[in-house]
Amino acid sequence: MKVNKILVVFDPTTDTQIALERAALIAKHEGSEIFLFSCIHSKLPKSADKKVEIGRLMSAQSDILAAAIKPLIEAGIKVTTEIKWKKDWYEAVVKASVRSGADAVIKASHSHSATQRLFKNTSDWTLIRQCDCPVLLVKQRPTGEGRKVLAAVNMRGDKDSYEAINTNILEFCKRYTEADTAEVHFLNAHVDLSSRPDRGSMIRACGVASDYVHIKMGEPSKVIVECADELGANLVVIGNSARTGLAAAVNSNTAERVVDDLKCDLLVIP
After folding, report:
1. Do 196 and 223 touch, CB atoms closer than 8 A?
2. HSE of 56 in the Cβ direction (CA atoms, 13 Å)?
3. What is the pLDDT of residues 197-225, one digit of tens each?
4. Angle, to 10 degrees, between the axis of helix 160-179 and the axis of helix 199-206?
5. What count of other Cβ atoms lies within 10 Å of the Cβ of residue 154?
6. CB–CB of 39/92 below 8 Å?
7. Residues with Cβ within 8 Å of residue 151, at least 6 apart in sequence
8. Is 215 helix (H, G, I), strand (E, B) or coil?
9. Is the per-residue pLDDT at 196 higher than 50?
10. How far apart are the C-alpha atoms of 56 and 24, rounded to whole Å?
11. Who has the most CB within 10 Å: 21, 36, 114, 158?
12. pTM here?
């Protein structure tokens, strides 16, 4: 999975842009281009000329983005920017990812309560459900220490979609293992004995030593979070079958159920 262009969601509410920091590291390693996208919206004074006021706010945001990307450009990273005025900024991000041809979307992630997730279509869930490219939700700043990756796979899935997702996850993790840039573990959670995968087959499919393959029984989202904590993982990689409409409202997928409980970054691969 070659990452030629990264869409980074700029957070106008904070001075710390951990998503941009992570994108810069990836861009240096991969030779990627960064597309920094900022979507702003606020209530305007009733007495204000709306067109003029919006222009003023977008101009100010442009100056902020210019300052943020200056060190990256000086480091030789190609960066482009775009600013939109739109209330539903997470929907704007999805459209921008398609329009720009982004190979990945990176966004800072903040925990939400179960009630917030239930009654509000939060940005993380929107990106997970609707983006056609991988989405990296960043929770930590890089520590400089050795990275540990936990990839969740389903080797006993009955649907063709599971096989496709497994292939995408294994392809991504293969780059880590071949480059020896991280310690990669693979996890297959199963709900009962009938769905338990064969350990030997899983080891061969993942291409790692037995110590790096974990097979655990339990509800997948709970098992993934527990295993990530036990390993001290910096990144969890998980597949996603997109849901929209009523299916999305009624049934959250595993990626959505783990995003708030994980302490580390989450990469969701469609």
Report:
1. no
2. 8
3. 999 999 999 999 999 999 999 999 999 99
4. 60
5. 22
6. yes
7. 169, 170, 172, 173, 184, 185, 186, 187, 206, 236, 237, 238
8. strand
9. yes
10. 29
11. 36
12. 0.88
Q: How far apart are CA 230 and CA 269, in angstroms?
A: 23
| Side-chain-facing half-sphere of 257: CA atoms under 13 Å | 16
Nearest-CA neighbor of 256 among 93, 118, 145? 118
Cβ contact 97:133 at 8 Å: yes
* Amino acid letter, residue 206: C
Rg (CA), the chain: 20
**Which residues lie closer than 8 Å to 71 by C-beta, 6 or more apart?**
none
Measured distance CA(31)–CA(2) in Å, rounded: 10
Q: Reply yes or no on whether the pLDDT at 178 is more than 80.
A: no
CA distance 65 to 45: 25
- d(CA 47, CA 45) in angstroms, rounded, equals 5
Cα separations in angstroms, 64 against 27, 149, 186, 218: 21, 33, 41, 47
